[in-house]
Design goal:
The chain is α/β, with parallel strands linked by helices. The chain has one domain. The protein has an eight-stranded parallel sheet with strand order 9-8-7-6-5-4-1-11. Strand 2 and strand 3 form a beta hairpin. The relative contact order is 0.20.
Length: 309
């Protein structure tokens, strides 16, 4: 089993105490996003969890207790963007985020650190040259602390359009994308990084960028030293190359309040949900109610014993 922590919210930044409590207890409850009274019980122990993939903009709250997950394999999808508080209203200062990234990389190794530069969007004040300039500034500071950068371009879902309606944010044209990535690739290469895309239709192979996988069986096999048996996650978009995982997060619970985020519908709902958070509860938000139905999910290790090394 691959554990996703989490596409739906920033657990390292806001719920690290809860996460470590779940590791200690050995299980977690997850509500079905399509049926909130349907709860899955998922066992958490190194025998069944092949790898944990963390998604975060701020891993600082997780750092001091990494020893508590020493028996697990894991890596980080770590977002550092060039935006200010207009678009990322509660993300810590970039200097602090970058320093945490570097400190974490020193502790766990640069191959377990994936820098995410996404989503890429345009505004009246953010153009192609802006992205090229700030991409290089961040890449320079992360040089020797990561080997991979994942990029994606904003898609205007209904919920992101609603959150961005008071800004000038917009999608990029194909010509803007090609103009930009032709400059980003040599910058990344200069600082020892490769660029991959996340869930993009556009083919950028001719400029040196391949389609990537955020939940990546290749990375996981390298961490484990053995092959795993898995397949594409059909619960994600068609363009997504990720392999199957179980996500333990919940939508509308991330307090970074990034206006481009697909996982938050509005900030009022986020604050109401966060008031119900109990770090001792098996659920991320709230507790089990009378009408809830709990079903234990059948999970198993994916390792198949064929040594790679």
């Amino acid at each position: 089993m691959i554990l996703s922590v989490s596409r739906r919210t920033d657990i390292p930044a806001f719920y690290s105490e809860w996460f470590y409590e779940r590791i200690k207890e050995g299980f977690v409850y997850v509500r079905n996003p399509m049926n909130i009274h349907q709860i899955s019980k998922i066992q958490l122990n190194p025998k069944v969890v092949d790898c944990i993939v963390f998604w975060t903009k701020n891993a600082r709250p997780l750092l001091a207790r990494l020893d508590e997950i020493r028996d697990y394999n894991y890596y980080f999808q770590y977002t550092i963007n060039p935006y200010n508080r207009e678009l990322e209203t509660h993300v810590p200062k970039k200097d602090n985020v970058i320093e945490t990234f570097k400190e974490l990389s020193i502790k766990i190794g640069l191959r377990r650190m994936i820098w995410r530069y996404d989503p890429i969007l345009m505004t009246d004040g953010i153009d192609v040259n802006y992205h090229i300039r700030y991409f290089e500034e961040i890449a320079k500071r992360l040089s020797t602390y990561t080997k991979r950068c994942t990029i994606s371009f904003i898609d205007n879902y209904q919920k992101t359009e609603r959150n961005l309606k008071h800004t000038t944010a917009r999608e990029l044209t194909d010509s803007e994308i090609f103009l930009m990535v032709k400059e980003l690739v040599p910058i990344a290469n200069h600082y020892g990084m490769e660029i991959q895309t996340c869930a993009e239709r556009i083919d950028l192979a001719n400029v040196g960028i391949e389609h990537g996988r955020c939940i990546d069986n290749v990375i996981i096999e390298e961490l484990l030293g053995v092959k795993i048996e898995t397949s594409k996650d059909n619960n994600q978009r068609k363009e997504c190359g990720c392999v199957q995982s179980i996500d333990i997060g919940e939508y509308n619970t991330c307090s970074h309040n990034c206006l481009y985020c697909y996982a938050n519908f509005n900030n009022e709902v986020v604050e109401k949900k966060r008031e119900k958070h109990d770090s001792k509860s098996p659920l991320l938000i709230g507790n089990v109610e009378n009408e809830d139905k709990i079903t234990e999910r059948n999970v198993c290790p994916l390792k198949r014993g064929n040594l790679l090394f």
